[in-house]
């Protein structure tokens, strides 16, 4: 099934759960991941398990694009 997000999109709407998904890059390990937009302050990196602060504003030029995403992040603090 084709992906519903355009390659150069910085976010997309999931059509099954209606969650707004955004893309961020971990500053520690450069892992590019998808997270729900409702997470306001921080998330846990899916690769290095480090805390990633979410900026209050983000520009299109500096945001991670859908074509670059490698995985997904977890809530902070991560629940096991």
Protein described:
The structure is a single chain. The protein starts with 10 loop residues before the first strand and ends in a 5-residue tail after the last strand. It is built from no helices and 7 strands. The model has no long low-confidence stretch (mean pLDDT 90). The chain is an all-beta fold. The strands form 2 sheets. A 4-stranded mixed β-sheet has the order 1-2-3-6, with no helix packed on it. Strands 5-4-7 form a 3-stranded antiparallel β-sheet, with no helix packed on it.
Number of separate strands = 7
Task: Extract low-pLDDT stretches.
Answer: none
> Rg, please?
12 Å
End-to-end C-alpha gap: 31 Å
Derived structural class: mainly beta
Summed up, the domain count is 1
Strand content: 25-35%
- Trace the largest sheet across and list its strands: 1-2-3-6
DSSP helical segment count: 0
Output mean pLDDT.
90
Percent of residues in helices: under 10%
Shape assignment: globular
Note the main sheet.
Answer: 4 strands, mixed
Order of SSEs: EEEEEEE
């Amino acid at each position: 099934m084709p992906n519903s997000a355009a390659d150069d999109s910085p976010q997309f709407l999931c059509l099954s759960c209606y969650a707004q998904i955004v893309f961020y890059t971990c500053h520690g390990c450069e892992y590019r991941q998808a997270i729900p937009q409702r997470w306001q302050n921080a998330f846990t990196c899916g690769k290095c398990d480090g805390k990633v602060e979410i900026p209050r504003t983000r520009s299109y030029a500096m945001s991670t694009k859908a074509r670059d995403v490698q995985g997904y992040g977890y809530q902070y603090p991560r629940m096991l």
